[in-house]
């Protein structure tokens, strides 16, 4: 009887242990048996099994990239939201509110910086070859620096692309910045140099304005409150009326600071200006006919234009081409 009892109790213990031990060891066994099966199928159908593992791998990659791009879109959206709520952390010049734009007219080609006032140090088209032309470029630069120096909230942009084949791949904007540097920022280095940058893609005066507005947004996170354009006095009409209306910027916040052209070039310059003005009247966005062709001629190195990256709110304006004003909404109008 005694033996029987212990047998019984032994059995019950064994019985009660069994399920516990099986629940512990089953998953391992399962993995092992699945592994064995996979190995078995691999030997049986190597190509089929390879294709199956390949497609599983690709599916995982696709899922990961979808997840990543979705994540990126959300973070972009957050970036834009920050702009709207006035956060300043992600933009290097977030506190600047006004744009001062100096439109480039040429590329500086001399290797010496002592000659910035000399005509032969600049790449001049035949229609630009007049005595004293270089000095007028320098006076635009000085004017831009001066206006910026007087406005603590201004960002100065020199604007102009690599427009001259024979001058090599140097931009008008870089040329102007370098001239300002060599002139010691006309005595305003401390106030102005840190907030003087470049817009290096414009191929005509409309692009000088539009691209600089985009560049301003890229640097500050917002669009300019006031815009001041610096250039020749005879181009005032073109900027103030044609280009400004094309981007529908309010005239109460748009200013022009003109300096005279050289005496000897004045007559030809005025004639040329009258022609270009009628062209822009016909084609305010410079995207049809002769203005469009002129831009191709001013892009000898086929530079890709980064905009409207940096100013997503006005992407539509960049894509627009027509004889009537762009009518969709704009951040400033
Ligand atoms: C913009 O220009 C107007 C007119 O000169 C001026 O009253 C205003 O203060 C300027 N705004 C900024 C932000 O500088």
Automatic annotation (TrEMBL):
Signal peptide span: none
Cellular-component GO terms for this entry: cytoplasm
UniProt keyword terms in alphabetical order: Membrane, Transmembrane, Transmembrane helix
InterPro entries reported for this sequence: C57A10.07/YOR238W
Domain of life: Eukaryota
Sequence segments annotated as region (Disordered): 1-22
Compositional bias segments (type: Basic residues): 12-22
Naturally occurring in which organism (per UniProt): Coffea canephora (Robusta coffee)
Membrane-spanning residues: 47-67
Name of this protein: DUF218 domain-containing protein
Listed Polar residues bias regions: 1-11
């Amino acid at each position: 009887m005694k033996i029987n009892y212990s047998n019984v109790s032994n059995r019950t213990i064994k019985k009660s242990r069994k399920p516990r031990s099986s629940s512990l060891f089953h998953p391992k066994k399962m993995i092992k048996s699945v592994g064995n099966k996979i190995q078995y199928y691999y030997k049986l159908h190597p190509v089929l099994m390879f294709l199956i593992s390949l497609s599983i791998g690709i599916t995982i990659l696709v899922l990961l990239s979808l997840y990543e791009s979705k994540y990126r879109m959300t973070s972009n959206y957050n970036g834009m939201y920050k702009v709207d709520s006035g956060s300043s952390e992600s933009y290097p010049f977030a506190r600047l509110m006004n744009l001062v734009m100096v439109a480039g007219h040429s590329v500086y080609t001399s290797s010496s910086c002592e000659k910035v006032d000399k005509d032969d140090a600049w790449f001049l088209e035949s229609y630009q070859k007049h005595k004293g032309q270089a000095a007028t470029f320098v006076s635009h630069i000085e004017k831009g620096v001066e206006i910026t120096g007087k406005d603590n909230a201004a960002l100065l942009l020199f604007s102009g692309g690599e427009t001259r084949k024979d001058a090599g791949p140097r931009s008008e904007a870089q040329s102007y910045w370098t001239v300002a540097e060599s002139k010691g920022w006309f005595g305003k280095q401390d106030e102005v140099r840190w907030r003087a940058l470049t817009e290096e893609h414009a191929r005509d005066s409309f692009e000088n304005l539009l691209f600089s507005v985009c560049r301003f947004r890229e640097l500050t996170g917002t669009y300019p409150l006031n815009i001041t354009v610096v250039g020749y006095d005879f181009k005032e009409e073109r900027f103030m009326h044609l280009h400004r209306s094309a981007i529908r910027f309010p005239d109460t916040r748009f200013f022009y600071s003109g300096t005279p052209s050289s005496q000897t070039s004045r007559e030809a310059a005025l004639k040329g200006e009258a022609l270009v003005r009628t062209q822009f009247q016909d084609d305010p966005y410079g995207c049809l006919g002769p203005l469009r062709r002129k831009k191709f001629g001013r892009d000898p190195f086929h530079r890709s234009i980064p905009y409207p990256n940096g100013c997503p709110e006005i992407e539509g304006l960049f894509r627009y081409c027509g004889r009537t004003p762009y009518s969709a909404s704009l951040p400033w109008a």
